[in-house]
Amino acid sequence: MVPYPGFSHVNQLFILARLIASHNIPVHLICLAEFNQDLNPRLKSSKYIHFNDILLTQAEGEITEEYDRVVSITELLEKHNEPIRKTCLQLSINAKKLVIIYDSVMKNYMGDVHSIPNVETCIFHSGSAISKYYLLQQSVHDLDVVVDVGHEFPAMDSCYPPLMEVFVRDLHEWDLNSGEFMISSREIEGKYLDLLANVKNTKPLWALGPLHMLLQSHDHDSSSYSSPRDKPPRHESLEFLDNQHVNSVIYVSFGTTPKLSQEQVNELAIALEKSNQRFIWVIGKGDHNTTTNNNNTKNNKKGVEKFEKKFGKIELPQGFEERVKGRGMVVRNWVPQLEILGHPSTGGFLSHCGWNSCMESISLGVPIIAWPNEWDQPYNALLVTNVLKIGISVFSWTHKDELVTSKSIEKSVKILMDTTEGEEMRKRAVELSNKIKSSVSPGGVTAKEVESFISYITK
After folding, report:
1. Is 53 known to be catalytic?
2. CA pair distance 214, 18, nearest whole angstrom
3. Is 352 a catalytic residue?
4. pLDDT tens, 379-417?
5. Which of 229, 268, 372, 446 could form a disulfide with 378 if both were Cys (CB 3.0 to 4.6 A apart)?
Protein backbone atom coordinates (compact mmCIF):
# COMPACT_ATOMS: atom_id res chain seq x y z
CA MET A 1 0.00 0.00 0.00
CA VAL A 2 1.29 3.44 -0.98
CA PRO A 3 -0.68 6.29 0.63
CA TYR A 4 -0.36 10.00 -0.04
CA PRO A 5 1.57 11.48 2.93
CA GLY A 6 -1.34 13.21 4.63
CA PHE A 7 -2.93 11.91 7.82
CA SER A 8 -6.47 11.29 6.52
CA HIS A 9 -5.13 9.43 3.46
CA VAL A 10 -2.66 7.35 5.47
CA ASN A 11 -5.27 6.50 8.09
CA GLN A 12 -7.75 5.20 5.50
CA LEU A 13 -5.23 2.83 3.96
CA PHE A 14 -4.01 1.77 7.41
CA ILE A 15 -7.52 0.68 8.37
CA LEU A 16 -7.90 -1.06 5.00
CA ALA A 17 -4.57 -2.79 5.65
CA ARG A 18 -5.99 -4.18 8.88
CA LEU A 19 -9.12 -5.33 7.03
CA ILE A 20 -7.08 -7.14 4.39
CA ALA A 21 -4.72 -8.59 7.02
CA SER A 22 -7.75 -10.03 8.85
CA HIS A 23 -8.03 -12.40 5.85
CA ASN A 24 -4.49 -13.67 6.59
CA ILE A 25 -2.99 -11.72 3.70
CA PRO A 26 0.39 -10.04 4.32
CA VAL A 27 0.32 -6.27 3.83
CA HIS A 28 3.24 -3.85 3.51
CA LEU A 29 2.63 -0.14 4.14
CA ILE A 30 5.14 2.02 2.25
CA CYS A 31 5.00 5.41 3.91
CA LEU A 32 7.01 8.23 5.47
CA ALA A 33 8.74 6.93 8.60
CA GLU A 34 7.01 9.46 10.86
CA PHE A 35 3.58 8.09 9.92
CA ASN A 36 4.64 4.47 10.30
CA GLN A 37 6.12 5.21 13.74
CA ASP A 38 2.70 6.40 14.86
CA LEU A 39 0.71 3.61 13.23
CA ASN A 40 2.76 0.74 14.58
CA PRO A 41 1.72 1.20 18.26
CA ARG A 42 -1.94 1.21 17.17
CA LEU A 43 -1.60 -2.45 16.22
CA LYS A 44 -2.16 -4.63 19.25
CA SER A 45 -0.95 -7.61 17.26
CA SER A 46 -0.75 -8.50 13.60
CA LYS A 47 1.86 -10.72 12.04
CA TYR A 48 0.47 -9.83 8.63
CA ILE A 49 1.14 -6.05 8.63
CA HIS A 50 4.61 -4.73 7.91
CA PHE A 51 5.85 -1.14 7.83
CA ASN A 52 8.28 -0.08 5.12
CA ASP A 53 9.70 3.37 5.85
CA ILE A 54 10.43 6.10 3.35
CA LEU A 55 13.27 7.99 5.00
CA LEU A 56 13.83 11.68 4.26
CA THR A 57 16.16 14.18 5.83
CA GLN A 58 14.61 16.49 8.42
CA ALA A 59 14.64 19.39 5.97
CA GLU A 60 12.87 17.30 3.32
CA GLY A 61 10.31 15.98 5.78
CA GLU A 62 9.35 19.49 6.86
CA ILE A 63 7.79 20.06 3.45
CA THR A 64 4.85 17.94 4.62
CA GLU A 65 3.80 20.83 6.88
CA GLU A 66 3.16 23.11 3.88
CA TYR A 67 -0.18 21.78 2.67
CA ASP A 68 -0.95 24.96 0.72
CA ARG A 69 2.26 24.93 -1.30
CA VAL A 70 1.52 22.68 -4.25
CA VAL A 71 5.07 23.02 -5.58
CA SER A 72 6.56 21.90 -2.26
CA ILE A 73 4.26 18.90 -2.08
CA THR A 74 5.29 17.94 -5.61
CA GLU A 75 8.95 18.18 -4.58
CA LEU A 76 8.25 15.95 -1.59
CA LEU A 77 6.40 13.32 -3.62
CA GLU A 78 9.16 13.18 -6.21
CA LYS A 79 11.46 12.03 -3.42
CA HIS A 80 9.17 8.99 -2.99
CA ASN A 81 9.91 7.65 -6.49
CA GLU A 82 13.04 5.61 -5.85
CA PRO A 83 12.12 4.27 -2.34
CA ILE A 84 8.72 3.08 -3.63
CA ARG A 85 10.18 1.44 -6.73
CA LYS A 86 12.98 -0.22 -4.77
CA THR A 87 10.68 -1.58 -2.05
CA CYS A 88 8.13 -2.93 -4.53
CA LEU A 89 10.86 -4.63 -6.55
CA GLN A 90 12.27 -6.30 -3.42
CA LEU A 91 8.83 -7.50 -2.32
CA SER A 92 8.04 -8.88 -5.77
CA ILE A 93 11.11 -11.14 -5.78
CA ASN A 94 9.74 -13.40 -3.03
CA ALA A 95 6.05 -13.09 -3.92
CA LYS A 96 4.00 -15.21 -6.28
CA LYS A 97 1.91 -12.10 -6.84
CA LEU A 98 2.28 -8.53 -5.57
CA VAL A 99 -0.79 -6.26 -5.54
CA ILE A 100 0.12 -2.59 -5.18
CA ILE A 101 -2.66 -0.33 -3.90
CA TYR A 102 -1.73 3.31 -4.31
CA ASP A 103 -3.44 6.61 -3.67
CA SER A 104 -4.57 8.28 -6.91
CA VAL A 105 -2.46 11.32 -5.97
CA MET A 106 0.62 9.07 -6.08
CA LYS A 107 0.07 7.91 -9.66
CA ASN A 108 2.95 9.92 -11.12
CA TYR A 109 5.34 8.90 -8.33
CA MET A 110 5.22 5.13 -8.65
CA GLY A 111 8.15 4.77 -11.02
CA ASP A 112 8.07 1.70 -13.27
CA VAL A 113 6.38 -0.67 -10.79
CA HIS A 114 3.65 -1.46 -13.34
CA SER A 115 6.23 -3.20 -15.52
CA ILE A 116 7.22 -5.74 -12.86
CA PRO A 117 5.96 -9.12 -14.24
CA ASN A 118 4.14 -10.41 -11.14
CA VAL A 119 2.63 -7.05 -10.13
CA GLU A 120 -0.97 -5.84 -10.36
CA THR A 121 -2.03 -2.38 -9.26
CA CYS A 122 -5.23 -0.87 -7.85
CA ILE A 123 -5.97 2.83 -7.49
CA PHE A 124 -7.41 4.13 -4.23
CA HIS A 125 -9.56 7.27 -4.33
CA SER A 126 -9.67 8.96 -0.93
CA GLY A 127 -12.63 11.22 -1.68
CA SER A 128 -16.32 10.70 -2.36
CA ALA A 129 -17.93 9.33 -5.51
CA ILE A 130 -20.03 12.48 -5.89
CA SER A 131 -16.94 14.70 -5.98
CA LYS A 132 -15.12 12.44 -8.43
CA TYR A 133 -18.18 12.36 -10.68
CA TYR A 134 -18.57 16.14 -10.77
CA LEU A 135 -14.84 16.63 -11.36
CA LEU A 136 -15.06 14.29 -14.35
CA GLN A 137 -18.03 16.23 -15.67
CA GLN A 138 -16.01 19.42 -15.62
CA SER A 139 -12.74 17.94 -16.91
CA VAL A 140 -13.59 15.30 -19.53
CA HIS A 141 -15.75 17.26 -21.90
CA ASP A 142 -16.65 14.37 -24.22
CA LEU A 143 -17.78 12.22 -21.29
CA ASP A 144 -20.95 10.34 -22.10
CA VAL A 145 -22.66 10.33 -18.71
CA VAL A 146 -26.02 11.43 -17.42
CA VAL A 147 -25.86 14.99 -16.09
CA ASP A 148 -27.51 15.37 -12.71
CA VAL A 149 -29.43 18.66 -12.75
CA GLY A 150 -30.99 18.21 -9.32
CA HIS A 151 -28.81 20.97 -7.94
CA GLU A 152 -25.95 23.21 -8.95
CA PHE A 153 -22.46 22.04 -8.17
CA PRO A 154 -19.41 24.18 -7.33
CA ALA A 155 -16.93 25.02 -10.09
CA MET A 156 -13.71 23.06 -9.81
CA ASP A 157 -11.51 26.17 -9.69
CA SER A 158 -13.43 27.44 -6.66
CA CYS A 159 -12.49 24.32 -4.65
CA TYR A 160 -9.21 23.00 -5.98
CA PRO A 161 -5.74 24.39 -6.77
CA PRO A 162 -4.67 25.13 -10.36
CA LEU A 163 -4.10 22.22 -12.78
CA MET A 164 -6.71 20.02 -11.10
CA GLU A 165 -8.49 19.61 -14.43
CA VAL A 166 -5.27 18.26 -15.97
CA PHE A 167 -4.83 15.81 -13.10
CA VAL A 168 -8.43 14.53 -13.37
CA ARG A 169 -8.17 14.06 -17.14
CA ASP A 170 -4.82 12.32 -16.86
CA LEU A 171 -6.14 9.95 -14.17
CA HIS A 172 -9.23 9.22 -16.27
CA GLU A 173 -7.07 8.19 -19.23
CA TRP A 174 -4.67 6.08 -17.12
CA ASP A 175 -5.11 2.42 -18.03
CA LEU A 176 -2.33 0.46 -16.31
CA ASN A 177 -4.30 -0.39 -13.16
CA SER A 178 -6.37 -3.53 -12.67
CA GLY A 179 -9.16 -1.86 -10.69
CA GLU A 180 -10.18 1.06 -8.54
CA PHE A 181 -11.90 1.44 -5.18
CA MET A 182 -13.34 4.13 -2.97
CA ILE A 183 -14.03 4.33 0.75
CA SER A 184 -17.75 4.70 0.24
CA SER A 185 -21.00 2.77 0.49
CA ARG A 186 -23.64 2.00 -2.11
CA GLU A 187 -26.26 2.85 0.51
CA ILE A 188 -24.81 6.40 0.55
CA GLU A 189 -23.57 6.98 -2.98
CA GLY A 190 -24.97 4.15 -5.11
CA LYS A 191 -26.18 6.55 -7.82
CA TYR A 192 -22.76 8.17 -8.28
CA LEU A 193 -20.83 4.91 -7.99
CA ASP A 194 -22.95 3.48 -10.83
CA LEU A 195 -22.25 6.55 -12.96
CA LEU A 196 -18.52 6.22 -12.37
CA ALA A 197 -18.60 2.50 -13.13
CA ASN A 198 -20.27 3.25 -16.47
CA VAL A 199 -17.48 5.67 -17.35
CA LYS A 200 -14.83 2.94 -17.03
CA ASN A 201 -16.84 -0.23 -17.39
CA THR A 202 -13.82 -2.39 -18.29
CA LYS A 203 -12.31 -2.22 -14.80
CA PRO A 204 -13.94 -3.10 -11.47
CA LEU A 205 -14.84 -0.29 -9.07
CA TRP A 206 -15.37 -1.35 -5.47
CA ALA A 207 -17.05 0.62 -2.68
CA LEU A 208 -15.37 -0.45 0.57
CA GLY A 209 -16.88 1.46 3.43
CA PRO A 210 -17.41 2.53 6.08
CA LEU A 211 -14.05 1.05 6.95
CA HIS A 212 -14.51 1.29 10.72
CA MET A 213 -17.65 -0.87 10.53
CA LEU A 214 -16.09 -3.36 8.13
CA LEU A 215 -13.06 -3.67 10.39
CA GLN A 216 -15.23 -4.33 13.43
CA SER A 217 -16.94 -7.19 11.60
CA HIS A 218 -13.66 -8.80 10.47
CA ASP A 219 -10.89 -7.87 12.91
CA HIS A 220 -11.61 -9.66 16.17
CA ASP A 221 -8.50 -8.11 17.71
CA SER A 222 -9.58 -4.53 16.97
CA SER A 223 -11.20 -3.95 20.36
CA SER A 224 -9.38 -6.42 22.60
CA TYR A 225 -6.63 -5.76 25.12
CA SER A 226 -4.34 -8.24 26.80
CA SER A 227 -5.22 -6.83 30.23
CA PRO A 228 -7.36 -4.02 31.67
CA ARG A 229 -4.19 -2.00 32.26
CA ASP A 230 -3.50 -1.94 28.50
CA LYS A 231 -6.79 -0.22 27.76
CA PRO A 232 -6.36 3.57 27.48
CA PRO A 233 -8.38 5.76 29.86
CA ARG A 234 -11.61 7.26 28.52
CA HIS A 235 -11.27 10.66 26.94
CA GLU A 236 -12.65 13.61 28.90
CA SER A 237 -15.12 14.39 26.09
CA LEU A 238 -16.83 11.04 26.65
CA GLU A 239 -17.14 11.74 30.36
CA PHE A 240 -18.84 15.02 29.44
CA LEU A 241 -21.25 13.22 27.09
CA ASP A 242 -22.13 10.67 29.77
CA ASN A 243 -23.75 13.47 31.78
CA GLN A 244 -25.92 14.86 28.94
CA HIS A 245 -29.34 13.94 27.58
CA VAL A 246 -29.81 11.87 24.41
CA ASN A 247 -29.22 13.87 21.18
CA SER A 248 -28.57 17.06 23.17
CA VAL A 249 -24.94 17.80 22.23
CA ILE A 250 -23.56 19.20 18.97
CA TYR A 251 -20.02 18.16 18.11
CA VAL A 252 -17.94 20.89 16.39
CA SER A 253 -14.75 19.99 14.53
CA PHE A 254 -13.06 21.11 11.33
CA GLY A 255 -10.54 18.29 10.99
CA THR A 256 -6.77 18.34 11.25
CA THR A 257 -6.27 21.28 8.87
CA PRO A 258 -8.81 23.94 9.91
CA LYS A 259 -9.07 27.13 7.86
CA LEU A 260 -10.97 29.46 10.20
CA SER A 261 -9.58 32.94 10.77
CA GLN A 262 -9.45 34.45 14.25
CA GLU A 263 -12.41 36.68 13.31
CA GLN A 264 -14.37 33.61 12.21
CA VAL A 265 -13.51 31.76 15.41
CA ASN A 266 -14.94 34.70 17.37
CA GLU A 267 -18.22 34.51 15.42
CA LEU A 268 -18.48 30.77 16.03
CA ALA A 269 -17.85 31.23 19.75
CA ILE A 270 -20.56 33.88 19.98
CA ALA A 271 -22.99 31.60 18.13
CA LEU A 272 -22.35 28.62 20.38
CA GLU A 273 -22.72 30.75 23.49
CA LYS A 274 -25.95 32.42 22.37
CA SER A 275 -27.51 29.23 21.00
CA ASN A 276 -27.90 27.87 24.53
CA GLN A 277 -27.13 24.40 23.12
CA ARG A 278 -24.73 21.90 24.64
CA PHE A 279 -21.56 21.37 22.61
CA ILE A 280 -18.08 19.89 22.31
CA TRP A 281 -15.83 22.15 20.25
CA VAL A 282 -12.50 20.74 19.12
CA ILE A 283 -9.91 23.45 18.49
CA GLY A 284 -6.59 22.22 17.18
CA LYS A 285 -7.66 18.63 16.74
CA GLY A 286 -4.08 17.57 16.24
CA ASP A 287 -2.68 15.08 13.78
CA HIS A 288 -0.93 11.72 13.67
CA ASN A 289 1.45 12.55 16.52
CA THR A 290 -1.41 12.72 19.04
CA THR A 291 -3.57 9.74 18.10
CA THR A 292 -1.86 6.95 19.97
CA ASN A 293 -2.28 8.07 23.56
CA ASN A 294 -5.19 10.41 23.97
CA ASN A 295 -4.70 11.20 27.63
CA ASN A 296 -0.91 11.59 27.68
CA THR A 297 -0.31 15.18 28.84
CA LYS A 298 3.15 15.48 27.32
CA ASN A 299 1.92 14.07 24.01
CA ASN A 300 -1.11 16.38 23.92
CA LYS A 301 1.08 19.40 24.66
CA LYS A 302 3.36 18.42 21.81
CA GLY A 303 0.37 18.10 19.48
CA VAL A 304 -1.01 21.51 20.51
CA GLU A 305 2.39 23.15 20.01
CA LYS A 306 2.74 21.61 16.57
CA PHE A 307 -0.78 22.72 15.64
CA GLU A 308 -0.13 26.30 16.77
CA LYS A 309 3.15 26.41 14.86
CA LYS A 310 1.35 25.29 11.74
CA PHE A 311 -1.88 27.30 11.92
CA GLY A 312 -1.22 29.97 14.55
CA LYS A 313 -2.64 30.20 18.04
CA ILE A 314 -6.41 30.35 18.23
CA GLU A 315 -7.78 32.67 20.91
CA LEU A 316 -11.30 32.41 22.26
CA PRO A 317 -13.26 35.47 23.42
CA GLN A 318 -12.29 36.48 26.94
CA GLY A 319 -14.27 34.56 29.55
CA PHE A 320 -15.95 32.31 26.96
CA GLU A 321 -15.04 28.99 28.54
CA GLU A 322 -16.09 30.17 32.01
CA ARG A 323 -19.47 31.37 30.72
CA VAL A 324 -20.28 28.08 28.97
CA LYS A 325 -18.84 25.83 31.66
CA GLY A 326 -21.04 22.78 32.25
CA ARG A 327 -22.92 23.36 28.99
CA GLY A 328 -20.04 23.45 26.56
CA MET A 329 -16.60 21.89 26.36
CA VAL A 330 -13.55 23.13 24.45
CA VAL A 331 -10.88 20.56 23.57
CA ARG A 332 -7.43 21.53 22.28
CA ASN A 333 -6.05 18.13 21.38
CA TRP A 334 -6.94 14.87 19.67
CA VAL A 335 -10.38 13.40 20.41
CA PRO A 336 -11.87 9.94 19.71
CA GLN A 337 -14.22 11.19 17.00
CA LEU A 338 -15.85 7.83 16.28
CA GLU A 339 -16.71 7.37 19.94
CA ILE A 340 -18.07 10.90 20.21
CA LEU A 341 -20.26 10.48 17.12
CA GLY A 342 -21.41 7.08 18.35
CA HIS A 343 -22.38 8.35 21.81
CA PRO A 344 -26.17 8.57 22.42
CA SER A 345 -25.85 12.16 23.67
CA THR A 346 -24.42 13.43 20.37
CA GLY A 347 -27.23 14.81 18.23
CA GLY A 348 -25.43 16.78 15.52
CA PHE A 349 -22.06 17.47 13.90
CA LEU A 350 -20.89 20.92 12.74
CA SER A 351 -18.30 19.78 10.22
CA HIS A 352 -16.00 20.88 7.39
CA CYS A 353 -17.37 17.85 5.49
CA GLY A 354 -14.09 16.07 4.90
CA TRP A 355 -14.99 12.68 3.47
CA ASN A 356 -13.76 10.69 6.48
CA SER A 357 -15.87 12.82 8.81
CA CYS A 358 -18.91 12.53 6.54
CA MET A 359 -18.64 8.75 6.33
CA GLU A 360 -18.27 8.42 10.08
CA SER A 361 -21.15 10.77 10.88
CA ILE A 362 -23.52 9.28 8.28
CA SER A 363 -22.77 5.69 9.26
CA LEU A 364 -23.43 6.49 12.92
CA GLY A 365 -26.72 8.30 12.23
CA VAL A 366 -25.62 11.83 13.16
CA PRO A 367 -26.97 14.72 11.00
CA ILE A 368 -24.55 17.41 9.82
CA ILE A 369 -24.29 21.19 9.68
CA ALA A 370 -22.10 21.64 6.61
CA TRP A 371 -19.28 24.19 6.66
CA PRO A 372 -17.00 23.19 3.75
CA ASN A 373 -13.67 24.90 3.05
CA GLU A 374 -11.93 23.37 0.03
CA TRP A 375 -11.18 20.33 -2.12
CA ASP A 376 -14.07 17.81 -2.21
CA GLN A 377 -15.79 19.27 0.85
CA PRO A 378 -18.35 21.45 -1.04
CA TYR A 379 -19.46 18.38 -3.05
CA ASN A 380 -19.72 16.28 0.10
CA ALA A 381 -21.81 19.04 1.66
CA LEU A 382 -24.21 18.87 -1.29
CA LEU A 383 -24.51 15.12 -0.83
CA VAL A 384 -25.40 15.54 2.84
CA THR A 385 -27.84 18.43 2.41
CA ASN A 386 -29.41 18.14 -1.05
CA VAL A 387 -29.19 14.43 -1.87
CA LEU A 388 -29.43 12.57 1.44
CA LYS A 389 -31.27 15.41 3.22
CA ILE A 390 -29.62 14.69 6.55
CA GLY A 391 -28.14 18.12 7.13
CA ILE A 392 -28.17 21.83 6.43
CA SER A 393 -25.59 24.28 5.10
CA VAL A 394 -24.41 27.14 7.26
CA PHE A 395 -23.75 29.23 4.12
CA SER A 396 -24.00 29.11 0.32
CA TRP A 397 -20.77 28.16 -1.48
CA THR A 398 -21.13 31.22 -3.71
CA HIS A 399 -20.48 33.29 -0.54
CA LYS A 400 -17.58 31.13 0.64
CA ASP A 401 -15.17 34.06 0.94
CA GLU A 402 -17.47 36.06 3.20
CA LEU A 403 -17.49 36.01 6.99
CA VAL A 404 -20.08 33.59 8.35
CA THR A 405 -21.89 35.61 10.98
CA SER A 406 -22.73 34.39 14.46
CA LYS A 407 -26.42 34.86 13.67
CA SER A 408 -26.37 32.46 10.72
CA ILE A 409 -24.33 29.91 12.69
CA GLU A 410 -26.65 30.17 15.70
CA LYS A 411 -29.67 29.77 13.43
CA SER A 412 -28.25 26.60 11.85
CA VAL A 413 -27.40 25.10 15.25
CA LYS A 414 -30.88 25.79 16.60
CA ILE A 415 -32.57 24.35 13.49
CA LEU A 416 -30.65 21.10 13.75
CA MET A 417 -30.77 20.70 17.52
CA ASP A 418 -34.06 22.26 18.55
CA THR A 419 -36.69 22.06 15.79
CA THR A 420 -38.97 19.51 14.15
CA GLU A 421 -37.01 20.01 10.92
CA GLY A 422 -33.81 18.98 12.68
CA GLU A 423 -35.50 15.98 14.27
CA GLU A 424 -36.66 14.82 10.82
CA MET A 425 -33.07 15.01 9.57
CA ARG A 426 -31.96 12.99 12.56
CA LYS A 427 -34.57 10.30 11.83
CA ARG A 428 -33.43 10.06 8.21
CA ALA A 429 -29.81 9.84 9.36
CA VAL A 430 -30.63 6.98 11.74
CA GLU A 431 -32.57 5.14 9.02
CA LEU A 432 -29.60 5.46 6.66
CA SER A 433 -27.25 4.32 9.41
CA ASN A 434 -29.32 1.18 9.91
CA LYS A 435 -29.15 0.41 6.18
CA ILE A 436 -25.38 0.84 6.25
CA LYS A 437 -25.05 -1.47 9.26
CA SER A 438 -27.06 -4.11 7.42
CA SER A 439 -24.89 -3.71 4.33
CA VAL A 440 -21.68 -4.56 6.21
CA SER A 441 -23.23 -7.56 7.97
CA PRO A 442 -22.68 -11.05 6.50
CA GLY A 443 -24.64 -11.31 3.25
CA GLY A 444 -25.02 -7.53 2.96
CA VAL A 445 -24.15 -5.64 -0.23
CA THR A 446 -20.94 -4.12 1.21
CA ALA A 447 -19.84 -7.39 2.79
CA LYS A 448 -20.19 -9.03 -0.63
CA GLU A 449 -18.20 -6.19 -2.16
CA VAL A 450 -15.36 -6.85 0.29
CA GLU A 451 -15.49 -10.56 -0.59
CA SER A 452 -15.26 -9.64 -4.28
CA PHE A 453 -12.28 -7.36 -3.63
CA ILE A 454 -10.41 -9.93 -1.54
CA SER A 455 -11.14 -12.63 -4.13
CA TYR A 456 -9.85 -10.39 -6.92
CA ILE A 457 -6.53 -9.55 -5.27
CA THR A 458 -5.86 -13.15 -4.23
CA LYS A 459 -6.87 -14.94 -7.42
Report:
1. no
2. 10
3. no
4. 999 999 999 999 999 999 999 999 999 999 999 999 999
5. 372
